[in-house]
Predict the structure.
Amino acid sequence: MKNKIVVITGAASGQGKAEAILFAKLGCKVVICDINLQPLKEVEYEIKQNGGNVKAYQLNVADKDAIKAFAKNVGNDIGMTDILINNAGVGGSYPVTHENDDEFEANWSRQLAVNLTAQVRLIRAFIKPLTRQVGGRIINIASTEGTGATLFNGAYVAAKHGSVGLTKALSLELAPLGCTVNCVQPGPIRTGMTNPIPERQKNLYSKRLVPMRRYGLPEEIANVVALIATPGTSFLNGAIIPVDGGLLANNALLPMRDWWIKKESKL
């Protein structure tokens, strides 16, 4: 992995930050970007203080022209990208019955733009360096919402299902060009997106639905992403990998689990 150039979107916090720190420790040249410049610069500073090779760029991934300019700058400043991690994402729950059309449409458009359309635009922007030789890696970060769904979350669920489908489609298209495309589906993770959820609700959710009975950490996602990016996983392609403490595997046992947890009233 030494001197591999890795581009990570949404790297100012959470999973993106954890990925940036880990790839820097592995000896990669790390390119980080985010719409929030100040926290991104703090991540850049932290990595440099620990001897890592990193460069930060402010980027709004919902801006098509900004993505093209970003890819050009990375090529000129750093070199030919080897690994692209589409990590940037946003949330926001609006029921389809929401009475304000403008608010619903704005949320829908923003979520699809950031959570899905940005992924394919970034892939297109970096496609030449990623396919210049065998060994290019694209890793899309989706969610367990890309397999299941939760109430009042239509835009997010649709976008994450789209990310899963995009991964499968492009894994077929890009494999002959020497680039693999895989997808990681984080479950409940302690990130900025989940910070507003009260701790009591996190605990109840975990004990009810997650076999490991806890929320995951950003570093636990980063470790899986790094594994997918290593040369040893060269035959892994089109994979959709949940990192969710067993959440998706456990869904079919919901009635039995509820009975068991009720029996274990001292939880």
Observations:
- The longest helix spans residues 101-125.
- The domain at 5-263 is CATH 3.40.50.720 (Rossmann fold).
- Residues 60 and 224 are 26 Å apart (CA to CA).
- The chain has a mean pLDDT of 94.
